[in-house]
Amino acid sequence: MLAIDVIDHRTGNHIETIHLCRNGNEDINYKGQIYVTTDFNIDTKSEIDRPSEASLSFFDRTGVIIRYMQMYRGGVGFKVKLFFLNTGNMNQPPEFAETFSVRTASADTGGYTVSFTLGMENPLAQRIPRRTQRKDRCQWRYKGPECKYTGSLAGCDYTLQGE
């Protein structure tokens, strides 16, 4: 199963998570999320004195990932969580789970095929603490669970003025 986090490269904000699975012709409901079935392949590559990489290619039948790639730097910087789940007992934790960062990406819009080169997360590049507070900028996703705004503005620019 895959969970692809679309990240805005300009702000670092999480835009959306796209859930995919490889389960024949049947979607999977896991922890309240629908994982849409699609064909995908993963190949790993490991060389001495080089970081490990994996190649992920899949069919984007709706074109939604290709559209996000066009809007957000071609998909470079997206986060991909890969995990294996025993569909016979979905209450168990995944047998394997790893998060990768997209290093390179390409898409064939005619064939709706997407290819990512994935690299392991760099622990030195992770922000600690993950959440930082600034006096002139809001960190929450507009009208998300943490956002307490109840006014009538249609959008938010993440400033305290909310223009």
TrEMBL record:
Any Pfam family matching the protein: Phage_tail_L
Biological processes, Gene Ontology terms: symbiont entry into host cell
GO cellular component: host cell cytoplasm
One example GO MF annotation: iron-sulfur cluster binding
Domain of life: Bacteria
Listed name of the protein: Uncharacterized protein
Organism name: Vreelandella sulfidaeris
